């Protein structure tokens, strides 16, 4: 029998009605003759509510205790959903992450899955039952409960699907699938029927919130097809796989964007070949993520390096740079806030060198200043003022005719 893993996010199981609706979708799959494992997130805003409770009890709670607390959100959902399915006459059983055999590294709050011992789940599926698994959690080799961090339930679902050799992993959300950009911003954004792993991974890393990058990476590594499907409407959603139908595929497939970007610049008196290594090694050691990097060395000008970070990391970055100023040997630093990053993504860009020029021309005609640029084989990112972000997305969406994408 074909096996399928179905994952329901927090908004898709936010209340009793939506849990019952999820149960109906699951039962339809069972009635099609499939063995079904389900992975769930915590209901609605449960995780935020649990964090607020923890803050009220102890603002400096240990990570271990936070994991013990936060993991209960998914367990509540799993149990309620199993009850709803069983109430319709279909056998169902809920499992915690560790009961499902999810083994992780020992890192509270952001552990990675090392393996899934799915024998218990496979036996239950073979008996005809539906397995409802709490996502976002697992257990390390010492028997300690670990949570997987942001997007952990997506990753749980993919890992379980691989372990039980499922034919696909379906991610149910409140949207109809993957769109060319956020349809809340661009009303004529198009739903894509298919998209490649690499394109989806770029979009996810650049701010698109449909899927977590870790889940896409694992699926790509194991060639597991992902399907983003609507939880509350009819529709086939979007298939994410290695290759897709190339006829009539547009060069640019999607646009991602994110706000609250800061450009930080370090200025030196004289060039120093070791300066880049020193700066970015120091930032990495302090767990500060750096995105776009631009170095400038010109005659009669002070050498400098600029890089972008998230606004949330600004205070820590400035503190680290000031603390390590002597070692880093720079003259001064400066920063610019109120910026955003807008990115176009498409695997067809590899063989179309004119895309960058077309992008910059469209932004120039709209009088949108470009502060920084970063490129890869399948994406071009620009940093622009935050006040111009929405307009930049709209201009580029129209320029590359993404309203016509399929």
What does this structure look like?
The chain contains 12 helices and 18 strands. The protein has helices at residues 16-31, 46-57, 63-86, 119-126, 152-163, 197-205, 213-221, 275-285, 314-323, 325-328, 355-365, 389-399; strands at 3-8, 35-40, 92-95, 102-104, 113-116, 130-134, 137-139, 145-147, 168-173, 194-196, 226-230, 238-241, 254-267, 293-296, 304-310, 332-345, 372-375, 379-385. Strands 3-6-2-1-9-11-12-10 form an 8-stranded mixed β-sheet, with helices on both faces. It is globular and about 80 Å long.
The count of helical stretches stands at: 12
Strand order of the largest sheet: 3-6-2-1-9-11-12-10
- Rg, nearest Å: 23 Å
Largest sheet: 8 strands, mixed
The global form is globular
Order of helices and strands: EHEHHEEEHEEEHEEHHEEEHEEHHEHEEH
- Poorly predicted runs are none
Assembly type:
single chain
Which range does the strand content fall in? 25-35%
Number of beta-strand segments: 18
N→C terminal distance: 32 Å
Q: pLDDT average, as an integer?
A: 93
């Amino acid at each position: 029998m074909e096996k399928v893993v179905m994952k329901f996010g927090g908004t898709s199981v936010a209340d009793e009605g939506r849990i019952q609706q999820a149960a109906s979708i699951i039962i339809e799959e069972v009635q099609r003759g499939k063995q079904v494992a389900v992975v769930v997130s915590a209901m609605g805003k449960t995780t935020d509510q649990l964090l607020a409770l923890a803050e009220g009890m102890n603002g400096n709670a240990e990570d271990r205790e936070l994991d013990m607390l936060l993991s209960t959100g998914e367990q509540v959902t799993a149990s309620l959903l199993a009850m709803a399915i069983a109430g319709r006459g279909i056998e169902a059983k809920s499992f915690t992450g560790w009961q499902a055999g999810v083994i992780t590294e020992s890192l509270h709050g952001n552990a990675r899955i090392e393996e899934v011992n799915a024998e218990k789940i496979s036996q239950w599926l073979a008996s005809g039952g539906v397995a409802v698994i709490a996502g976002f959690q697992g257990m390390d080799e010492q028997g300690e409960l670990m949570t997987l961090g942001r997007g952990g339930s997506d990753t749980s679902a993919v890992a379980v699907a691989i372990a039980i050799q499922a034919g696909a992993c379906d991610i149910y959300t409140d949207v109809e699938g993957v769109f060319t950009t956020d349809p809340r911003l661009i009303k004529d954004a198009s739903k894509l029927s298919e998209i490649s792993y690499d394109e989806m991974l770029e979009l996810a890393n650049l701010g698109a919130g449909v899927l977590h990058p870790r889940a896409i990476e694992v699926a790509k590594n194991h060639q597991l097809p992902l399907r983003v499907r609507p939880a509350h409407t009819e529709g086939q959603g979007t298939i994410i796989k290695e290759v897709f139908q190339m006829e009539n595929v547009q060069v640019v497939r999607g646009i991602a964007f994110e706000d609250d970007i800061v450009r930080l610049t370090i200025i030196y008196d004289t060039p120093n070949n070791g300066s880049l290594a020193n700066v970015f090694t120091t930032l990495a050691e302090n767990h500060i993520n750096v995105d776009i990097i631009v170095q400038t060395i010109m005659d009669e000008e002070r050498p400098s390096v600029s890089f972008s970070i998230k606004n949330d990391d600004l205070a820590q970055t400035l503190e680290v740079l000031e603390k390590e100023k002597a070692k880093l040997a720079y003259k001064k630093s400066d920063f610019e806030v109120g910026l955003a990053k807008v990115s176009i993504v498409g695997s067809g860009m590899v063989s179309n060198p004119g895309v960058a020029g077309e992008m910059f021309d469209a932004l120039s005609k709209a009088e949108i200043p470009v502060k920084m640029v970063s490129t890869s084989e399948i994406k071009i990112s620009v940093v622009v003022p935050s006040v111009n972000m929405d307009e930049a997305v709209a201009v580029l969406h129209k320029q590359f005719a993404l309203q016509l994408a399929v």
